[in-house]
Amino acid sequence: MKSAYAGDIADGDAVDTHFAVESKRPLRPYSTKPGLWFGLDLSDRTGSIQAVYWGREDEETRAVFESFGIGDVVRVQGAATIYRDQLQITVNAGGGLIEKTGQYEREDMVPTAQVDIAGLKSRLLDHIRSVKNPQIRTLLDSIFGDEPFLDMYAACPAAKSYHHGYVGGSYSTP
């Protein structure tokens, strides 16, 4: 289980947890001193939060930037701050980090339905059993009669966001 979720972070909190990378903005030079920085959008099952990485040496900052991509899960160490009335995680090179990780629970990254998934599964199977057309019924049985597939189907969101974008969302579609 994660130590902190995006939805629970407050201004002034020390942050040391992991998030999925939703987007990365390009490396940018500082306007008043040498060096590079970049911003990114992070998310977990509770929502999204912006982060900014303030680099020191150009090559070091480039290496951090190139070490992960959109869709990866990263460990983030930094501090929650308010910038332009928006909460963000500030990561300073040498005092914080952003690093790709494989050590996370999938359920921590993806929203989960706040409904009875077993009940939705039962409802889906009832609908399949009510199909009168034998060819369509055979097709549906061949797909949804496979219990391992049905378990994977239940674990998948129906979409990335908006329309049932949570674990169990595929069962929630009409």
Description:
By secondary structure, the protein is of the alpha+beta class. It has 2 domains: 6-106, OB fold (Dihydrolipoamide Acetyltransferase, E2P), CATH 2.40.50; 117-172, no CATH class. 29% of the residues lie in helices and 30% in strands. It has 6 helices and 7 strands; from the N terminus they run ββββαβββααααα. It has helices at residues 58-66, 106-109, 117-129, 134-144, 147-155, 169-172; strands at residues 14-24, 28-29, 36-44, 47-54, 73-83, 86-92, 97-100. The protein has a 5-stranded mixed beta barrel with strand order 1-3-4-6-5. Strand 3 (36-44) and strand 4 (47-54) form a beta hairpin.
Q: Could you give a short description of this structure?
A:
29% of the residues lie in helices and 30% in strands. The protein has 174 residues and is α+β, with helices and mostly antiparallel strands. The two termini are 32 Å apart.
Q: Secondary structure elements and their pairing?
A:
Elements lengths: L13 E11 L3 E2 L6 E9 L2 E8 L3 H9 L6 E11 L2 E7 L4 E4 L5 H4 L7 H13 L4 H11 L2 H9 L13 H4 L2
Parallel strand pairs: 4-6
Antiparallel strand pairs: 1-3, 1-5, 2-3, 3-4, 5-6, 5-7
Helix-strand sequence: EEEEHEEEHHHHH
Return the CATH class of the largest domain.
Mainly Beta
* CATH homology superfamily of the largest domain: Nucleic acid-binding proteins
CATH topology annotation of the largest domain: OB fold (Dihydrolipoamide Acetyltransferase, E2P)
Q: Helical residue percent?
A: 25-40%
Question: Main traits of this protein?
Answer:
OB fold (Dihydrolipoamide Acetyltransferase, E2P), five-stranded mixed β-barrel, 6 helices, 174 residues, single chain, alpha+beta
